[in-house]
Amino acid sequence: MKNKLILIIVLLAMTACNQNKSDKNGTLSSAETDADVSGKFSDSVPNGPDVNVKITESYARQVARDAYFWAWPMENIYNRRLAFKQSPKVGLMNGVLPFAPLNSLAMLHDYIKPEQRWVACPNQDVVYGAAIAALDETPVVIQVPDFGKRFWVYQVVDLRTDAFAQLGKMYGTKPGFYMLAGPNWKGEVPKGITKVFYSKTGTAFIVPRVFQDDTPSDKNAVQAIINSIDVYALDKFDGKMKQQDWSRLPSLGSPTKDGGSEETKWVFPDTFFDQLPIVLKDAPPLPGEEARYAQVLSVIEAAKKDPALKKAMIDEAHKADKELVDPLLQFRNWGIPLPGNWTTADNCAAFGTDYFTRTAIAKSNILVNAGKETKYFYQDLDSKGSRLNGSKQYTLTFAKGNLPPVDGFWSLTLYDEHHFFYPNVIKRYSVGTKNRDLKYNVDGSLTLYVQHAEPEGDKKANWLPSPADDFCLYFRCYGPKQSVIKNQWTPPSVVKI
Fold first, then answer.
1. Over the stretch 415-439, which tens digit does the pLDDT of each residue have?
2. What's the CATH code of the domain at 489?
3. Are residues 219 and 305 in the same domain?
4. Is 404 within 8 Å of 482 (Cβ atoms)?
């Protein structure tokens, strides 16, 4: 009996072994078969619409409309890159705007002039510079001189207008050399580079800002500092601070159609979808964006084979431009509502996949600093909710001890309906820390006067001239303290007299 049991156990073991061999030689177990079939099925699932499948016009329009909105800021920056690429040398475009070949910098030596139209909502609180880096071609080096006690910050953003480098007084940045590199760069960092910042995109925009008060003495004093600011390709780095005399830059022609009252046009519905694959290659998808990228690229590919579909997408881009993007020029249409009808944004230069805020800021006041660097407050309305208009007179009064809590400076700037300076007889476009002659009230409060006609008496020192028609106000806090960053402090209401 014992021997029979042993024999049965041996036979069962041999059967199991033969079954395993059969499985391995081509007859799979049910679990392995399911796993293999599942794997093959998953591999066959497309990342987006099959370009060989006919799609409806209404579907193509829907994809086009959505893509036009969320990719609008990226094409805006990319077309600025193409414009800078046409710069023959470092200079001033039309004699007023920093303009330089890719991977090099141009600096102003004074406040920006009011006639420029390349960037909406400029300010006359700082001396600006501008450089566009093609990080898909080479890393660039950024020079940081010793600014002493003077407030300064270098804005560094990628193609999405998201900041990726922290350089400024608020960060405690030391003088020296810093480097920007693209997402795929794996070279050796030269000795003498303090820190490397890596971009998520192949394009970067660098905008130095250096505070300057509105006096001849300070305008002279800032020159020696700004002449040590520079940006250049890595192969030009030798460990020595390069010096430039930015006051001697030549005037250059413009590669764009300028001269209008609105911002220079940077996004073009007619060519938007021709450019988009190039732009999306420059800015690989963020986590979660893969399906969005695949969808729009598949529809673009399908439209290449169907002229009617392409025409419909272009038509939808024009509609989206007018119906979705254009209204965002008006500050009252977006932002976080605050007391007194002010609005703000808490994620400036850190938009990620917040497509609405990113496009709203790109349309109304592109190239904003990160929240720790600058806090922005926007205003189209008075305290009662009526549109600001030069036919009325307004005041803003800061109670004693309630000026903006900042480590840097503050300013109130007035813009016309297109978000540019309003030409006026006293050539004043903002008031704030830079103005050394502001008049305080007897009780220690400060009242600013916003109106078209010149006010009487010593109120002129606090006067911000307005046009005769609609305008907006823009409040900046550079180096904001936490109460400003968290919206616990907000600007005073704009009160109609």
1. 999 999 999 999 999 999 999 899 9
2. 2.60.120.600
3. no
4. no
Residues 146 and 295 placed together within one structural domain of the fold: no
pLDDT for 32: 44
Domain extent at residue 191? 87-252
Secondary structure of the chain as H, E, C letters:
CHHHHHHHHHHHHHHHHHHHHHHHCCCCCHHHHHHHHHHHHHHHCCCCCCCCCCCCHHHHHHHHHHHHHHHHHHHHHHHHHHHHHCCCCCEEECCCEEECCCCEEEECCCCCCCCCCCCCCCCCCEEEEEEEEECCCCCEEEEECCCCCCCEEEEEEECCCCECCCEEHHHCCCCEEEEEECCCCCCCCCCCEEEEEECCCCEEEEEEEEECCCCHHHHHHCHHHHCCCEEEEHHHCCCCCCCCCHHHCCEECCCCCCCCCCCCCCCCCCCHHHHHHHHHHHCCCCCCCHHHHHHHHHHHHHHHCCHHHHHHHHHHHHHHHHHHHHHHHCHHHCCEECHHHCEECCCCCCCCCCHHHHHHHHHHHCCCCCCCCEEEEEECECCCCCECECCCCEEEEECCCCCCCEEEEEEEEEEECCCCCCCCCCCCCEEECCCCCCCECCCCCEEEEEECCCCCHHHHHHEEECCCCEEEEEEEEEEECHHHHCCCCCCCCCEEC
* 387: number of Cβ within 10 Å: 15
Residue 48 is assigned to a structural domain of this protein: no
Question: How far apart, in Å, are the Cα atoms of 31 and each of 16, 28, 44, 175, 287?
Answer: 16, 8, 20, 64, 32
The string of pLDDT tens digits covering residues 71-85 is 999 999 999 999 999
Residue 41 has pLDDT above 90, yes or no: no
- Lookup: tokens for 290: 């893969």
Average pLDDT of the chain to the nearest whole number: 92
- N residues, the chain: 497
Q: To 5 degrees, how large is the angle CA 194–CA 196–CA 198?
A: 165
Share of the chain above pLDDT 70, in %: 90
pLDDT over 70 (residue 5): no
**Of 290, 311, 329, which residue is a domain's last?**
329
Rg for the chain (alpha carbons), in Å? 29
Q: Token pair 């420059």 is at which residue?
A: 282
Beta-carbon count within 10 A of 243 CB: 11
Domain final residue pick, 314, 329, 344: 329
User: CB count, 10 Å around CB of 275?
Assistant: 17
